[in-house]
Design a protein that fits this description.
By secondary structure, the protein is an alpha+beta fold. The chain is built from 3 helices and 9 strands, in the order E-H-H-E-E-E-E-E-E-E-E-H.
């Protein structure tokens, strides 16, 4: 894991853009803290989606999340890339066979030996295998591509899986500052 502040990312991106022959200070967002933050957020999301779509880089941004469940319901973390849940590794405390469905299911039309996971609004719903079914109250473990947790302040640390991700992010942000997404 590697940490860096949003301010450091922006400074590195500014240097990279300058080295490529363009004055990044001409960018409309460079001195606008809100605009720079929005551009950083969007660049992170675009970079992570591109990496998640490429099998060579998926593991670079994959994290394991622990989801506390109460009566088969638990909150979906904001950082989790929901569009990649169908590729996720999902486990419960009993190492049951679990499948993710991107739609709600009729709990009366399922196989008792399988676990089913789906999302309704911002909550996971888990139908555990027999005999637990709708009363599951332990943790689920979901290994899936995820965004980093972004702090409120640009001066706070952001944790990334590696220095290579930070380097890729700085290069992508420099391209955005130059107007070349």
């Amino acid at each position: 894991m590697a940490t860096v502040t949003g301010d450091q990312i922006l400074a590195r991106a500014r240097v990279i853009a300058t080295q490529q022959g363009v004055d990044p200070n001409m960018s409309k967002v460079i001195d606008n803290r809100g605009g720079a933050r929005a551009l950083l957020n969007e660049t992170i999301r675009n970079l992570y989606r591109a990496k998640a779509n490429d099998q060579k880089f998926t593991n670079d941004i994959t994290t394991k999340s622990t989801i506390p469940m109460t009566a088969g319901v638990g909150a979906v973390p904001d950082e989790m890339m929901r569009e990649f849940l169908d590729q996720a590794q999902i486990a419960d405390e009993d190492d049951s066979l679990i499948t993710y469905l991107n739609y709600a299911i009729d709990v009366n039309q399922t196989f008792d030996q399988l676990g089913y996971l789906w999302i309704v609004d911002d909550e996971f719903h888990y139908l555990a295998p027999s005999p637990t079914l709708l009363t599951y109250g332990d943790d689920l473990f979901i290994t899936c591509p995820s965004f980093p947790t972004l702090p409120a302040a640009m001066s706070s640390n952001i944790t990334f899986p590696s220095e290579a991700i930070i380097d890729d992010l700085c290069s992508a942000l420099a391209a955005e500052l130059r107007g070349n997404p």
